[in-house]
Specification:
Helix content of chain A: 25-40%
Shape of chain A: globular
Strand order of the largest sheet of chain A: 12-3-4-13-14
Low-confidence stretches of chain A: 19-32
Strand content of chain A: 25-35%
Largest sheet of chain B: 5 strands, antiparallel
Number of helices of chain A: 7
Distance between the termini of chain A: 62 Å
Low-confidence stretches of chain B: 1-29
Order of helices and strands of chain B: HHHEEEEHHEEEEHHEEH
Distance between the termini of chain B: 87 Å
Helix content of chain B: 40-55%
Strand content of chain B: 15-25%
Number of strands of chain B: 10
Mean pLDDT of chain B: 85
Oligomer: heterodimer
Largest interface: A-B, 13 and 12 residues
């Protein structure tokens, strides 16, 4: 805030420090919440030591495939549904799309816990925005809020790659937000370790003037082929279509059936 | 002996003052007891009086009533703010006294009351306008920034060791969907939307004038809306156009402060219209 020191405004952490006194625990203070951490624990320092070459390396994989693209009739969102813990498949029907409100969707890839927590927090902020301002939050504002949350915890080991999809009075919106607080607006994104396969498929099949059915097929193709080659993606394809009057859930189809349909001669 | 007598006197005053049961004593008790109660409950902002007043806030509103008049008018495609310019000392530079300030390109405000308090509020509001643009990627709506200012003012009526802001503000502007807005805030932290309003010294006179003269025809064109603001201020300002400062915002255009020459021209037009009206009335009477 401008003229912070001149105005004598005491930040939240300073006041808490005065009230509680240091030594009990050290609070990591962020605008939305305060996480209590035992004395001596420093997440960002610990992680820096972990990614040091030669030392133990913690490399977080975003085990999933999600994709989204805009076209003439709105935005298509397609995600897989495999949740893995190492090589163990924890769930084959995980829900990787959070329905924030009838005009806003968020996809999740990366650490399931991080995604679920932060996107639910985003949903709470969106609801509060609507109550305070009597109008729905714009897609750019929602993605900015998520991005700022990520920025507060940058370097501390969060793992989240998300796409915020919506339709507001500026038209259809698609934003990619990740745990490094990168925020990009675009017409086509794919996240997760299966994203390279998905990009190959949707890049070659994309036309701006596709019909709605063709767009659904392209989304399904993208996920199906990615799950076919990527070990950490699988399960079912959850397909959503963001239209002017809200999103609709198009289908939920098993990839093992879809792959047989698409690659008739292969098996 | 003495302490006992004093104590009993105090307690009897207390029951007398706070009990509103007896109607015969009600008038006497409210006026006397208010002074007594005021003596007890007006030092600290965070203390209610027994009859529900926050005296510090009410005294802040009195401070506002001492400030120079400001009037705001919401037209169809224009919003107008007019303020009474206090006469400056001979050696003082006139430009440094500005009662109308832009908060963003599409919002501006005028205030009545303590100038120093207003400077702080305006600064916080300007920062909030830019902060909103940064986080939400959209300009503020007039209602949002008014709500922010009002929340700021309310916070200062409910904390230790701070006094309320001694200003009322008139906030005008256009939302990004093109709707013109006019809001007024006061030291207690409430805010309301208005079609036309006045604050400061003689606000009551100006508001009565506006209630009589604010019609759809009166604000039909931009020029008419500006003239209505000037007419309203001329009711209470001495020596005419020299002591009036005017600012307008037109849809999709930034704030424009009118030059004294333009104001003089408009004042001359208004005078001429008044004379023409008087002439017509004379002719009607004679025929």
């Amino acid at each position: 805030m401008a003229l912070f020191d001149v105005s004598g405004y005491k930040s939240h952490s300073e006041l808490r420090g005065q009230m509680i006194g240091t030594g009990v625990g050290h609070f990591i203070d962020r605008p939305n919440q305060t996480f209590s951490v035992p004395v001596g624990v420093d997440p960002s320092g610990f992680l820096k030591s972990c990614s040091h070459d030669g030392g133990v390396s913690i490399d977080l994989n975003h085990g999933t495939t999600t994709l989204a693209f805009t076209f003439r009739h709105g935005v298509i969102v397609a995600v897989d549904s495999r949740a893995s813990a190492g090589s163990y498949i924890a769930s084959k029907e995980a829900n990787k799309v959070i329905e924030i409100n009838p005009y806003l969707l968020g996809t999740m890839s990366g650490s399931a816990a991080d995604c679920q927590y932060w996107e639910r927090l985003l949903a709470k902020e969106c609801r509060l925005y609507k109550l305070r301002n009597k109008q729905r939050i714009s897609v750019s504002a929602a993605s900015k809020l998520l991005c700022n949350m990520m920025l507060g915890y940058r370097g501390m080991g969060l793992s989240m790659g998300s796409m915020i999809v919506g339709w507001d009075n500026k038209g259809p919106g698609l934003y990619y937000v990740d745990d490094n607080a990168k925020r990009l607006s675009g017409r086509m994104f794919s996240t997760g370790c299966g994203s390279s396969y998905a990009y190959g498929v949707i890049d070659s099949g994309y036309r701006e003037d596709m019909t709605v059915e063709e767009a659904y097929e392209l989304g399904r193709h993208g996920i199906t082929h990615a799950t076919h080659r990527d070990a950490y993606s699988g399960g079912v394809v959850n397909l959503y279509h963001m239209q002017e009057d809200g999103w609709i859930k198009v289908c939920k189809e098993d990839v093992s059936e879809l792959i047989h349909r698409y690659r008739k001669g292969m098996f | 002996m003495r302490p006992v007598i004093t104590l009993s006197l105090n307690t009897s005053w207390q029951t007398f003052a706070s009990g509103v049961a007896s109607n015969t004593f009600k008038h006497f008790s409210t006026s006397v007891s208010r002074n007594i109660m005021a003596a007890r409950y007006d030092r600290a902002i965070t203390v209610f009086s027994p009859d529900g007043h926050l005296f510090q806030v009410e005294y802040a509103q009195e401070a506002v009533k001492k400030g120079s008049t400001a009037v705001g008018i919401r037209g169809k495609d224009i919003v107008v703010l007019g303020v009474e310019k206090k006469s400056v000392a001979k050696l003082q530079e006139e430009r440094t006294v500005r009662k109308i300030c832009a908060l963003d390109e599409h919002v501006c405000m005028a205030f009545a009351g303590l100038t120093a308090d207003a400077r702080i509020v305006i600064n916080r509001a300007r920062v909030e306008c830019q902060s909103h643009r940064l986080t939400v990627e959209d300009p503020v709506t007039v209602e949002y920034i008014t709500r922010h200012i009002a929340t700021l003012k309310q916070r200062y009526t409910q904390s230790n060791g701070r006094r309320p802001f001694g200003i009322s503000a008139l906030i005008v502007g256009f939302d990004y969907d093109g709707t013109p807005r006019l809001y007024q805030t006061d030291p207690s932290g409430t805010y309301h939307a208005w079609k036309a309003n006045a604050i400061g010294r003689s606000a009551k006179t100006v508001r009565e004038f506006l209630e009589k003269n604010y019609t759809d025809e009166a604000i039909a064109t931009d020029n008419e809306a500006i003239k209505l603001a000037i007419k309203a201020l001329l009711e209470v300002v001495q020596s005419g156009g020299k002591n009036i400062d005017l600012a307008v915002i037109r849809r999709n255009q930034p704030l424009k402060l009118l030059e004294s020459k333009e104001i003089e021209t408009l004042v001359a037009e208004i005078e001429k219209e008044k004379e023409d009206e008087a002439e017509k009335k004379k002719q009607k009477k004679s025929t």
